[in-house]
Amino acid sequence: MVHIGRICFRKYGNFIDNLRLYVRGGCGGMGLPRLGGQGGCGGNVWVVAKNNTSLKKIKDKHPQKRFVGGTGGNSSVRALKGEKGKDIEIVAPAGITVTADDGSVIGDLNVEGDRVLVAKGGSGGTFYSSFEPEKGQVKHIRLDLKLIADLGLVGFPNAGKSSLLTALSNATPQIASYAFTTLRPEIGKVMYSDYKQISVADLPGLIEGAHVNKGMGHKFLKHVERTKQLLFVVDVCGFQLATKTPFRSAFETVQLLTKELELYKEELMLKPALLVVNKMDLPGAEDKLSELKEQLQHPEEFVDLLPDDVIPKNYMTFRHVVPVSAASGFGIDRLKMCLRQSIDEHATAETDAIHQERLKELRHRTHQRL
């Protein structure tokens, strides 16, 4: 049995996907020349992943966006080795990439408990430094949020993504008949009878050329990078953005979406994907669905239907192809079951892969000892 959890949506004005912070490691403590005492090291600054938090919470709690490690203790007659300065932890959500101002990656926070050192404290004064302490590292860092949901809806404007999210999560995102309905990220959750929750993100719709940053395409694709799985949504009757743009059949739409992902970053093609064929309440939908399924089973046989610039290097393989009507509710229950199955299978595979990697490391260490 599937039931829906109550959910509130965040408007984009309150949705922060990146944050720039000033961080400085603590200064080391003074050494004690006459007794050779060593000052304590300054405190470090860390970014630590924790569930149930957000970048907005960091900004609200620390409006100055400054984080400084504690100063190391001075050496004294009572304590020749000074105490280490207090470490500072910046609590951030999982799914964060920490970068320096020049764009270089300092580290990733993928799961709760992951830690990244962003500013090292200075060393305490010693004989080798004439008992003078060092200052801590100083830098500006960026926290870039990419992991926002288990599933990311991938589709062109007006494919029915917002309506689908409404049907899945009983939410009420703004829906209209014009092409660019979703201008702000919306995140909904489907709750199951065993209290399992799956988050689904409806992001600003792609347009052709998104990989070269047309419209909001680059922002969309950046978020897609850190969704665990992709949920393609296409109109069974095809799609046309405007009168001056070409009409795309459902098959063409799938390949064009694939091409946009591939051009932005080929690694996105490795993500597990499902396909939702929406608007099955329209006349002739069943015949068009049968045609689409045949084309998807042997895409290379229908390549002549595609313009050269739409043909991807590799065709996307879908775990499930689910026909639905977000308007009438047809197929929604089956879709929910398919989402759960796909997420659970992926989690099991990830766990098995981790166990195999650990077993491989253990065997390697045992072999080295022998």
TrEMBL record:
GO terms for biological process: ribosome biogenesis. It comes from the Eukaryota. Residues 149-344 form the OBG-type G domain. SUPFAM superfamilies: Obg GTP-binding protein N-terminal domain (SSF82051), P-loop containing nucleoside triphosphate hydrolases (SSF52540). The keyword Zinc-finger does not apply. Keywords: GTP-binding, Nucleotide-binding, Ribosome biogenesis. GO terms for molecular function: GTP binding; GTPase activity. Residues 13-148 form the Obg domain. GO terms for cellular component: mitochondrion. InterPro entries: G_OBG, GTP-bd, GTP1_OBG_dom, GTP1_OBG_dom_sf, OBG_GTPase, P-loop_NTPase. Pfam families: GTP1_OBG, MMR_HSR1. The keyword rRNA-binding does not apply. This is GTP-binding protein 10. It comes from Nothobranchius furzeri (Turquoise killifish).
